[in-house]
Amino acid sequence: MESQELKARIFTPASFYRHLKIFVASFSEFRKSRKNGNVSKSFSEKIMLAVTQVNGCRYCNYVHTKNAVDAGTSVDEIKMLLNGELGELDNDESVALMFAQHYADTNGKPDKETYTTFVEHYGEQKAVDILAMIKVIMVANIHGISLDAFLSRFKGKQMKGSKLKNELGIALGVLVLLPTAIIKVWFEKRVKNSINENRNKMKTIKNMSIIVLATSLLLGGGTSFAQNLGKTNKKNKTDYNVISRLDVSPRPAGFTPVKATPKSGAYIESVVTTSNRVLNSETIMLKKASVQPIGEKGNSPWEFLCDEGGHTYEQSALNPLSYMVGGISSSLLTRVEQAIKIMNLDVVSAKVEAKVFYRYDDPFTPKWIGYTDKVVANILIKSDEPTEKIAEVKRMAVQAWAVGECLMNETPVEAKYTYNTNIWDAESASSGKVIGSESYDNGLKITSKVEKPKPESFELGTDVSMEKFTNPFKFEVVSISESANDKQRPYLHKITIKAIQENYATWNVYADDSRGYKGIDKAPTSTDYFTSGTTLCLMSQLTGSSEVFKHKGIEINDYRAEHQFNYQVDNYMTPSATGHVDSVTTRILVKSNTSEKVMSDFASLALRMCFAGEAVTGATTTEIGVYQNGNLIK
């Protein structure tokens, strides 16, 4: 094509694919650059136009010229940018604009000296932000030029030097090249950041990918889906809500559930869970748990779906430790509200804010282990009652808090493994997906994604990157529980939960501890959440352990975790109420053609890695504060 307006640089699909990989690898930096304010909207559009001036994309020229005008860039500045005349522009911005043109001129291969000058001028973080924008517009330019050339060809205007196969390979090939680039970058980054001692032992990229996958599996492997259509089965593929009420109680295969016998004046809640994998082409971290306090009138069985987040995707359901920490804050709030009722105090509101600190040590080594380092739980009360009475509320609540006693003291756990039982004929993993973040039960929206929590008693930390897996790897989960103010169910709580990790959502869920009140339960109990969180955490570690064993050439065909926790409160609903957990039953069921010794090693690795299990078996450091009208009571 001879016309001036269609003159542009010509690219090949191979060059486009290279820039796609660069774009995918820096996408997280681009997202952060749009939020951190280092680069203004006007400056950003000038950068886009500087690159576009070199490459000659008409579509990008039009879009970013309009955006630049809307952002307040003068017409004279735009004219100079489009003509490549940068000398009269703002000196601070001109360094970036000249570098952007240099980057485009060299097809994304700037010389070291120019790059060093660029970084020294802006500093590392701002330079990363600018470079991320340059990488994005390079991809947009290349695709826009090829699409323009392809469409113009049908109008009888062939772009000079452009070939049809290249136009098709870029304009339409992006549908294949982009997913390929994402997968390629995914594995390359995991190899670079996560392989430590195992790296030299890898013989093929496939083996490296398996080990690296385990990194993302343990804390990130989710996918998100849209609409909420209810739980249905379509050709053996089930659509799940995040939380739903079940018709059938959990049926453990590794033990027979038996409700513990309460002593005089004691209240015992024996909570049973079972779990299964949910097969999904997008993630191997999707799983489900069914849970119910056995022998308790008015407590329904519930099903929890569980997913994780990661570097490039947001979770479709709560992760295991969010369920667990939600149970921690809600169960303490129940004891606080009961103490207030026992003391007959005039209280405007009460809530509990919890933060739990987790850690991996020595991942991908024989010493790999998971820890719960600390639990912080703060009680926030608004009331004009004497300070001494508010302090007494804390004392009574903590004394009656069975979940807290389980955390603060070593709890006896009976853990056993069962191999290749008949359960797999009926209870093996099946295909499915989560259909939306919102779940409803009897008109109540019991799950939804919301804005980040805003705790009053501690700072919310920065999301931990899921791209770089450090040793040790540390992160936090935060939960805020407050009354739902339901007159029929006085211990119905709204819980706001977030794992402080990249692409982990903030969730609202509900818990109902209104034992003994008329009517059906409106949500799972707080101990349902704590118990299920423990079970699902173990399932995550079993998934990771299975990938490690797969790398060794050992196939673990299926697995599940089951639990029974016996929560007891002596002298229930009295000032001397005392909570404790005297026993926990843990079962891991494994299906595999390998030896029982290998299956035992597989299950033992998962148990050792399980944060939640360590919180139960160990004596976890726990700090509990009480605030009255915003002031800490010492």
List the helices and strands and how they pair.
Blueprint: H1 13-25, H2 27-36, H3 41-55, H4 58-70, H5 75-82, H6 91-105, H7 112-122, H8 124-153, H9 164-171, H10 174-194, H11 205-219, E1 232-234, E2 237-240, E3 243-245, E4 267-279, E5 287-293, E6 302-306, H12 320-343, E7 349-361, E8 369-382, H13 387-400, H14 402-408, E9 413-419, H15 424-427, E10 430-434, E11 439-441, E12 444-450, E13 473-483, E14 492-499, E15 506-512, H16 526-551, E16 558-570, E17 578-591, H17 596-609, H18 611-617, E18 621-628, E19 631-632
Parallel strand pairs: 2-10, 4-10, 8-18, 9-17
Antiparallel strand pairs: 1-2, 3-6, 4-5, 4-16, 5-6, 7-8, 7-13, 11-12, 12-15, 13-14, 14-15, 16-17, 18-19
Helix pairs in contact: 1-8, 1-10, 2-8, 3-4, 3-6, 3-8, 6-7, 6-8, 7-8, 8-9, 10-11, 11-16, 12-13, 12-16, 16-17
How would you explain this protein's 3D organization?
It contains 18 helices and 19 strands. It is of the alpha+beta class. The strands form two sheets. Strands 1, 2, 3, 4, 5, 6, 9, 10, 16 and 17 form a ten-stranded mixed beta sheet that branches. The protein has a nine-stranded mixed beta sheet with strand order 11-12-15-14-13-7-8-18-19. Helix 1 runs antiparallel to helix 8, helix 3 (41-55) crosses helix 8 and helix 6 packs antiparallel against helix 7 (112-122). Residues 1-5 and 194-230 have low confidence and may be disordered.
